[in-house]
Write a structure and sequence with these properties.
Number of helices: 10
Strand content: 5-15%
Strand order of the largest sheet: 1-2-3-5-4
Oligomer: single chain
Radius of gyration: 43 Å
Largest sheet: 5 strands, mixed
Helix content: 55-70%
Length: 396
Amino acid sequence: MGRVRLSERGQDVAIAVAGLLGGLLLIAVGAYDRRPGWSAWASVLPLVAMAGLSLVRRRWTVWTVSVGGVVFGVAVYFGSLVPTMLLYTDLLYAAVLYGPARMSRVLQLSGAATTVVLTGLTWRYASLSEALLVAVFCGLIFLSPVWTADLLRRHREVAEAERLRAEQTALLAELDRRGAVVAERARMARELHDVIANHLSAIAIHATGAQAVARRQVRAADEPLVEALAVIRENSVQGLAEMRRMIGLLREATPEEPYAAPRLAAVDVLLEQAAAAGRSAGLRFGAEQHGEPGELPAPVELAAYRIVQESLTNAVKHAAPGPVRLCIRYGERELEITVESPYRAGEGRAVPGARAGLVGMGERAQLLGGEFDAGPDGQTWRVRAVLPRTASGERE
């Protein structure tokens, strides 16, 4: 069973009640030093007062220890009671631990002075042995709780300082990490702008010029050339727009507008672009959908869109003439994407970066906890991806 932790208020109440009940028990059995001629109430009243002061020992430290000193003197005069003395030592302890920083020095000086005065008076009017006993007694009452509380307070201050230092170190490390991330993103943005974006911009410009020249000089039979140039220009402009948006996101430490990730609803646009690009190669594109799309998490929908986009692009580049079929099946727990295109076997089609698209599609599926496979199936090249409808499978 776990230990029950009392609140600060509960601890004060427990100390006051324990001291009060213990003192009353000792008074009831006569185990206290009562001054001749005085009733037991002379010891009960200081006990009750000291227990009441224990209830507010954290809130009003200066007042409780001051009033407690007077009550302690009255208690010693009318009859010594151990619980009353213990409650007073607890007031001294609380005054140093919870009070102002100067309380430790004040109480140490006052306690030492009281010890010296009482020891000297006892030595003067009694014996040396009694004076030594008074010195030990005063040290236990006035100095021991003050030293204990002062030591504990110093340990707490050191621990708090170390905690603050650790937090500052962690904050500086986090700021350094964020600075490194921002610098790396800025470097990536420069590389994308200087290399890829400039190339896409050049392609768009040259495709526009070539399209204008072709429209004036080619014959009607060469109209597919004009359409191919238009497709090249449209795709390069679109890619340039997305690249510039990504560059803007990389350059902003905290983007004001969230990145608008493409959605599966835009698959029709991909099919139109693929059909325009593959018309000269004898490709015909079609799509079918099964089930209700519902609401898909953004990571799942983005991965599905990119897989469809890459599959259609590969079909345009590598497929033999014939129909290309896209099938999207929405299940209760999974999203299945299938792209089938005519397979054209043969060597000599490898180019730099070949199969990088297949690797990328497989990684997107695996990061979401899905499945991916692609390869020839007879006379058909088949791409199949199965993604979970929730992003719970995504890894950090």
